[in-house]
Amino acid sequence: MKYISTRGRAPALSFEDAMLSGLARDGGLYVPDSIPQMSAADIRALHGLPYEEVAFRVMRPFVGDGFTDEVFADLIAKAYAGFGHGARAPLVQLAPGHFLLELFHGPTLAFKDFAMQLIGQLFEEALTRRGERVTIVGATSGDTGSAAIEAFRGLDAVDVFILYPHGRVSEVQRRQMTTPVESNVHAIAMDGHFDDCQARLKDMFNDFEFRDGVRLAGVNSINWARVLAQVVYFFSSAVSLGAPDRKVSFTVPTGNFGDIFAGYIAKKMGLPIDRLVVATNQNDILHRCLSTGGYLTDTVTPSISPSMDIQVSSNFERALFDAYGRDGAAVAQLMDELKAGGFNVSQGALQALREHFDSGRVSEEETLATIRDAKDTMGELLCPHSAVGVRVAEAQRDKSVPMITLATAHPAKFPDAVEKASGIRPPLPDRMADLYDRPERVTRAANDLAELQTLIKERIPS
Ligand SMILES: *Cc1c(COP(=O)(O)O)cnc(C)c1O
């Protein structure tokens, strides 16, 4: 299987090369040139299997021969061994016909661990085999950075640098990034907002001399391998509710459109999914776009669900690529218009998007009210992101089709908002209860490309 760029002007790559490069050199995102199918019998055969086995069967056809079956199975086993729940992604019931998929039992308490733990293993294996070393630089509003550091700490073939906006991440998020002791981990607290961190990261990728000099690799959610790892739990949860013999729908708290895009891939592989519902907070570019066709950027308004405070959803480009009949030139044109503020999706493409996706938007007050109500009537303490999902799902679900809402983070990762809403301050799970006692190590940096590049070059082994 080959991977092609959504902008049509970069060479097709193998799974491994697409994973190691992250972003295509024409600025596009890698997608598989065709989607492997799972038959009803293949899906039925997933019933009762451990998560790791489902993961192997769902992902194997995408991965190619860089990894043998045995090695790939072993890497999956290692990736999920550190999770705090034997089911990995347990499904709990909230109400008749409404279920919550708990994706927060990984080492940093957010769903990002599902993909990041696996790609940590895949990177290390591929790079060791090739005798290569890479420098991973990531920008984060909190969860991606902590998950990346946790996944790559102590690995021999990578240095990992994470840029986060100084003073704008939660204390738990910051400590997860600043307390690992391994010397290949570098947390950088940068002046500015998340968008500034992301912009400097993109500058580094567009500086080909720097990019090639340090062997820059990206693990932000545009990395195809991350999307792929997230496809698995759409299968495992749907199967436990009766797929392929019963349809299910999903509601996904959405920022960069990575998680919900994984659901779309599951559907294209043959999983009978009825609706995929995009749930946004007040930063609602996706909800506006699916409602009106206008993809128009606005300023980011900070919210109590900060991991969704995004006004340019990078992975949406992959959905647009399909909606425009896989026309890379058309997508490149839209992305040029985006630089000038936005674009209008064509009628045909909008119709194609609406065949798969619904959307809803939730205000701050509604999010707090949902956390309070879910505790009282559903017996579940939700993080603010998951609450956005539950609210939209309750408003939009068709009672004849089971709805699965993705719980994207543990409530203890956002204790202030949860306490404000519910009066309960959720404690950290025992396995990380000493987080507040560990010493922190962090480098402060200005919002300045040259300074960041110098810092990175100084820190990596030459
Ligand atoms: C990253 C994140 C999201 C948004 O996921 P996307 O794949 O970017 O749409 C939602 N909730 C939490 C807790 C997250 O960390």
UniProtKB/TrEMBL annotation:
Residues that bear N6-(pyridoxal phosphate)lysine: K112
Catalytic activity entry: O-phospho-L-homoserine + H2O = L-threonine + phosphate
GO molecular function terms noted in the UniProt entry: pyridoxal phosphate binding; threonine synthase activity
Ranges for domain Tryptophan synthase beta chain-like PALP: 99-331
Cofactors (names): pyridoxal 5'-phosphate
InterPro entries per UniProt: Ser/Thr_deHydtase_PyrdxlP-BS, Thr_synth_N, Thr_synth_N_sf, Thr_synthase-like, Threonine_Synthase, TrpB-like_PALP, TrpB-like_PALP_sf
Family: Belongs to the threonine synthase family.
Protein name per the record: Threonine synthase
